[in-house]
Amino acid sequence: MVDRVTPRCTDKERKYVADTWGIKDQCPVVAEPFIQWVLEDNFSDGRPPWELVGVQVVKDVDSYELMKLRLLNGGHSAMGYLGYLAGYTYIHEVVNDPTINKYIRVLMHEEVIPLLPKVPGVDFEEYTASVLERFSNPAIQDTVARICLMGSGKMPKYVLPSIYEQLRKPDGKYRLLAVCVAGWFRYLTGVDMDGKPFEIEDPMAPILKAAAVKGGKDPHELLNIEVLFSPEIRENKAFVAQLTHSLETVYDKGPLAAVNEILDQV
Asked: Domains of the chain (ranges plus CATH)?
């Protein structure tokens, strides 16, 4: 499992590399200061001493991977769509919005962390706080648009699994997760809250946009896309009702109002 934020390369980075080192690189990789490598200690004939250079060598890497997918990547997606609709350009701006910052913290605490298996030596609350601190770094200049791209591949991997697990519990909690999905659905219309069109970067963009526009405040058109949603989620009346309400609120009052409304109920 590898964790490091690497924003999309722009002309700014190309010019910096050329001016500083005299190297004309068309795609230099820039990254945040944080870096984490986790390897499973499962080799056939010994291995190099990677611990000496900071690599974590563990018995089971799956729990570390799941933690990253649900908390870091899931948090990224949740703040990405809501942040884009709220008019933000960079992720550090989204994190510094007190409403969205609180939303991510409560979302993880209430609806995601309780689903995760324990990871040796890791406090999930501290991990979530560290993720938000990393995302708040203005020097990274990571765009919200980058986080929003390829949602058809990200959401089923980062966010929807938590919803499915919560639906299987007799006392499952998913109201905050539903707001994230509502933000994604509204984003998929390809029109921001001011009526300005934007491009959706996704291999399923034509299908998703057509369903989002046709469905509007009704999520069923998107939920009926079988490659993304199973009957378990679209036939759950309670979840669909919650999602519909959140989607209506995003449409009528905006993403921040939808978030605040749910936070007031937690």
From this structure: 1-59 (no CATH), 60-265 (1.10.1040.10)
- Residue 84: predicted pLDDT: 98
> Is the entire prediction scored with pTM above 0.70?
yes
Farthest-apart Cα atoms in the chain, separation? 62
Residues of the chain scoring pLDDT < 70? none
Token pair belonging to 214:
């046709």
Please identify which residue in the block is written with the tokens 């499952």.
172
- Residue 8 has a pLDDT of 83
